[in-house]
Amino acid sequence: MEPVVNIRKPHQIQILSSSCETVAKSRFYKFMSPWLGDGLFSSTEVWFNHRQLIMPALCSNILDEYTAVMHDKADVLTEIMRAKVELNPDSFINILDLVMRYALDTVCESAMGINMDIQRKPENDYVTAFYNCIQISTERYFQSWMRWNFIFHKTKRGKKFLNSVECMHKFTEKVIRQKQIDKFKRPDSKDGNQCGKRKNKAFLDLLLDINQSGNHSLTLEEIRQEIDTFIFAGYETTATAIIWTLFAIGNDPGVQARVHVELENMFGNCHERPTIQQLSQLKYLDRVIKEVLRLYPSLPMISRLLDRNSVIDNYFIPEKTLITIQVYQLHHDPEVWKNPEIFDPDRFLPENSRERHPYAYLPFSNGSRNCIGQKYAILEIKIIVTKILRMWSVKSALKPTEVKLVSDFTLRPFDDKINLYFTPKINNTRTN
């Protein structure tokens, strides 16, 4: 067992980030290695090489490739929610499971380019295996006796984990091989054109394009690892951010009114899908999401394993020490944030942010290991939140003080319930 040091002050995090050229990710990610291998969460130089390789697939000018899927899945979710609202208009809806399925449905199609229809058909082998791996890995992190492989792999949970990993790997590899065959049959379809109609590319298509360019070469296993990692990284953190955004808005009528005004000013009564450019102009919604990620960071703590000796606040910390950045405590520190428990999106106005320490706010980590998919995540959050709030006003059944939080991998409600009332919006004229 390695020694553990907890830090939560901005200057301490800055020292950690700047004093080490490479800081390996910690034990939790090692538990994922049979599933994710040497993908984005790896603790070796493979991580750096692969990160440089896949960054173009997640940069701003590629995000258009993913928006159609996000909109399609948002349509499915709102159809399901509309049916529930119409069936029991005076009852609340627990949105947690619905949003979780939406997020997994979205990221799977974004990653592999196949419609798994998880929201309508949640019972399938891949989804079951995926949930098994998430749950068992989290259990393993908090149960010390399960941390040793020679014990864990002999337990029922260990065998279930490995069987689930095998199930997902077989599925993903089958999809990859089929895509490779399709690309071989249509070698000139690099832009995704089929019969004159442009088809948006999935993350897998972009990886295969990189391979086809001749500048890089990824093995089948490496491609599968990147796909698995994309799905894992883009699922629960994004889902919880969406859930907490709707919860926070549903608890603050003033904030919700300002969001509705901004949406009406931008879209009026138009029901067309918003473009990336339009979404980027929703400045108040931007601040709302930032404030939600401060109050409810998807990753309440981030662990790193030091690869060399370091000194923080005159304390010598030897290499191989587990450093845990307490993000939730950082974001709620009254020495860093004025009135930290108050939901105030305007604290992210430019004039209120200039003097803030650069390491005071870590919604997507920071330093060399920060989340390269954050633009994808923010876009997905905006698309679904905008879709919902153009259709309904939302009201939370519980106040923030009445919801007990729990931190396993992400920050979640203890009882896995976020109950909201949905009231259909009356179409308003454009606000000047």
From TrEMBL:
<keyword id="KW-0492">Microsome</keyword>
<dbReference type="GO" id="GO:0020037">
    <property type="term" value="F:heme binding"/>
</dbReference>
<dbReference type="InterPro" id="IPR017972">
    <property type="entry name" value="Cyt_P450_CS"/>
</dbReference>
<dbReference type="Pfam" id="PF00067">
    <property type="entry name" value="p450"/>
</dbReference>
<keyword id="KW-0503">Monooxygenase</keyword>
<dbReference type="InterPro" id="IPR001128">
    <property type="entry name" value="Cyt_P450"/>
</dbReference>
<dbReference type="InterPro" id="IPR002401">
    <property type="entry name" value="Cyt_P450_E_grp-I"/>
</dbReference>
<dbReference type="GO" id="GO:0004497">
    <property type="term" value="F:monooxygenase activity"/>
</dbReference>
<protein>
    <recommendedName>
        <fullName>Cytochrome P450</fullName>
    </recommendedName>
</protein>
<keyword id="KW-0479">Metal-binding</keyword>
<keyword id="KW-0349">Heme</keyword>
<dbReference type="GO" id="GO:0005506">
    <property type="term" value="F:iron ion binding"/>
</dbReference>
<keyword id="KW-0408">Iron</keyword>
<dbReference type="InterPro" id="IPR036396">
    <property type="entry name" value="Cyt_P450_sf"/>
</dbReference>
<keyword id="KW-0560">Oxidoreductase</keyword>
<comment type="similarity">
    <text>Belongs to the cytochrome P450 family.</text>
</comment>
<feature type="binding site" description="axial binding residue">
    <location>
        <position position="371"/>
    </location>
    <ligand>
        <name>heme</name>
    </ligand>
</feature>
<comment type="function">
    <text>May be involved in the metabolism of insect hormones and in the breakdown of synthetic insecticides.</text>
</comment>
<dbReference type="GO" id="GO:0005789">
    <property type="term" value="C:endoplasmic reticulum membrane"/>
</dbReference>
<dbReference type="InterPro" id="IPR050196">
    <property type="entry name" value="Cytochrome_P450_Monoox"/>
</dbReference>
<keyword id="KW-0256">Endoplasmic reticulum</keyword>
<keyword id="KW-0472">Membrane</keyword>
<dbReference type="GO" id="GO:0016705">
    <property type="term" value="F:oxidoreductase activity, acting on paired donors, with incorporation or reduction of molecular oxygen"/>
</dbReference>
